[in-house]
Amino acid sequence: MHYTRGMASHFVLYDSECSFCTFQMKVLRWLDWKNLFELVPAADSRVSSLAPQLTAHELNEAIHCVSAENQIHRGARAIRFIAMRLPVLIPLGLVLWFPGIIFIAERIYAFISRNRQFISRAFGCKGACALLPDRPVEVKRQV
Question: Distance between CA atoms of 14 and 60, rounded to whole angstroms?
Answer without folding.
Answer: 7
